[in-house]
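tool_call: predict_structure(chain=1)
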Amino acid sequence: MASPNVGLARPPRPRWLGLAAFVLAVAVVAGIGGLAVAGTAAEYDGLRRPGWAPPSGLFGPVWTVLYATIALAGWLAWQRAGFGTPLWLYTAQLALNAIWTPLFFGAGRHGLAFADIVVLWLLIGATIASFRRIRRAAALLMLPYWAWVTFAGALNLSIWQLNR
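tool_result:
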């Protein structure tokens, strides 16, 4: 005899599991960055920096807030459109985000880190445009991140030029 549930649609997974996956993905990126900058405050402080460079203690709190909004934005977009082109762009920019810190601090390759941040900036812009077509709130949540990466790119360029 057939099971009474045959032919019934499987209930959807709880939405919070999807959110947990996005938080985990962003936490991995943050973790890579955190490992790469462990003990680098002295290195950052020892670099010649422009007068408008923030103190090293500002980066952690800013990135904590940004990573939360990045995870939420990805989750909101995924809910609406699944894992298609918008999420591939999102994934690519996360990968470049993870690579930047080891390039800049771990390897001291400020020029290569700047090239990474330029491509990262372009991918964030593409992600925002893509998210806007599927879920405006997801795009808006990415804007502070894009603004910060704009600032970080200018700072990276300045530090690279000042420390050649």
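agent: The mean pLDDT is 87. Proceeding to next step.
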